[in-house]
Amino acid sequence: MKNLWNEEEASNYNSDLALRVYSSNLLGRSDELVLHGGGNTSVKSMVDGEEILYVKGSGWDLVSIKEEGFAPVKMSTLLEMAALDELSDTDMVSGQKAAMIDKSAPNPSVEAILHALIPFKVVDHTHADAVVTISNSVNGKDHIEKLFPNFLIVPYIMPGFILAHEIYKMTRDFDWDRCEGIILHNHGIFTFDDDAKKSYDKMIEAVSVAEEFLQQNANIEFDKVEPRAFDVEKLKALVKQEKGCEIVMKVNQTPLALHYASQDHLYMKATRGVLTPEHIIRTKRIPLIVNENLEEAVHQYITEYKAYFKNFSSDEIMLNPAPNYAVIKNFGVVLFGKNEKECNVLNDVVEHTMMAVLRADKLGGYESISLKDSFEMEYWELEQAKLK
């Protein structure tokens, strides 16, 4: 992975927060690190004698974030929250909001408490494709431990307070100076330092290790596939009917999409879950898979989604059960959105997911988070708020 740091550019940023903006933008420039609102960054700084965490505001993209996109939260409040045995989402959000020294700033990232726990000035968190691809393989735990022996490795845990509190417990007697970073299985990677460049460098170096491993062990060559004829307008009409609103459709027939859609046992291969949990609010857990009978495939998808909801719901209201994208055997991938922008965002996420699935299969098999964990992320109010 290319290191984009430029000393001449960096010298123009003279405050903690300004330099935090610069290195955040650098991370955001690499799609292999973050996509469309993914990841989060922070910097700790003294303001009027009090330590403040400036953390990425919810809904901002790292590639375009500015100083006003960071939420300034009192460190003392965040550290008190981390030590609590229980904390509801509502109380976490309201408590963080109350602890902000600028009430006009955006809501802090759901990972604000975790950023506060890490005792370094600068913290970077990405959903690096290479790292998550490896951890989403059936032997991912072993591979990650061998590749990153000096990292704190954390099994998948629901993001937000639950994750932060678990890491609080894991690190009470912990030597942070010997820790090079944190890897959250099926989720992402953290690096940190008291220097912005060093934290950024650590991220690039760690992701490069993962990329090199994949290049040596999971290289992909696309089969040449001639797309079959398929009535996409009929598909669009059926999905529009199920969604109950106008939709925009995008067809992806890149070599990657055609190779992915031509796999044997397509339903089994393409319905194993999301690359990183945050993606589920855009893609749903799985796509619509179409082999032959289109109407039957759509009916099956809706039926299975309703069963999935019924199995895991308590008092949630079901989202629209229609698919957000489809994989059509020997034709390619089709995305559905309320506008062209949503289609393009969805396409980006799906392309990264397809490549990760193919590579993880080279490592022995792709394995995402469980159905239950998927449901909790899809219906988590803090994730739904991001889309709004």
UniProtKB/TrEMBL annotation:
Q: Which InterPro entries match?
A: Aldolase_II/adducin_N, Aldolase_II/adducin_N_sf
Q: In what residue span(s) does the Class II aldolase/adducin N-terminal domain sit?
A: 19-214
Protein name per UniProt = Oxidoreductase
Which organism does this record belong to?
A: uncultured Sulfurovum sp
